[in-house]
Amino acid sequence: MFDFLFRNNRRKRETPNPIFEVLGTDMHCHLVPGVDDGSKSTDETLACLQDMREVGFNKVICTPHFQFPRFPNEENDIKHLYDLLNKDVRKSTEIEGLELVGCGGEYRIDSGFNDRMEKNRFLLVGGKYLLVELSLHQQIVGIEETLFNLQMKNYEIILAHPERYPYFSSQSSHYTRFKEMGIYFQVNILSMSGFYGELPRRKAYEMLDAGMVEFLGTDTHNTLYTQALMDATHDRKIEKYLATHKFLNSQITNPDLPAKKKL
Ligand SMILES: [Fe+2]
Q1: So what's the pLDDT on residue 95?
Q2: Could you tell me where the beta strands, DSSP code E, fall in the chain?
Q3: Which residue range forms the structural domain that includes residue 29?
């Protein structure tokens, strides 16, 4: 049952265009309720999913935060809560045409990460890809080595929102190296609309123009994000980039994802 609170609080806005149909799958969002700074309830998640359906998505992969010590999530707990959520989503008649297709994680490379890596305790996106994020504030020493060690363990790595790390420019030698290593980049759609400010917006487009970006994600946490996504469907520049750039979102659940691009 929907909680109309989430709907009644909304200001009137234009009807969204389903421009994200071309992506099909959102592979980065925080919609398992109550486990991180994302959705707080099943009703809130259902409201978000309805909005995501309206802007064109038909598949969603959840990626809760795994971050030490802020979100000390454990894989088995998350899997259980995801299964419960999925039952509610399937029962809901409000979001026909959209399905949850799995639960990965968004893993912060932090002081708890190496321990996790040693034990191979990861929920993978699409059963194959490890979504990692960096600190949003300061560069951590040894990132490249950590990514290399993950690759030695045969993980395919997607770096979440590279445009949001203020200490790396889009032309950073680190990013050039990451691309040479074959690491996928996922830009947040809302970075393109300016939701996070002008600097991430500019960097997102610079990386898109440089052909460095394989995935787009919503990074949805709540209905503020999905309302901003609805607004973004009227952004001509975003529409143009969706039409002229090829993204791999719809293939992420396909085990035969094309070979990585190298710079
Ligand atoms: Fe995220």
Answers
A1: 87
A2: 25-26, 59-62, 65-66, 99-103, 106-108, 129-133, 156-160, 184-188, 215-217
A3: 22-251
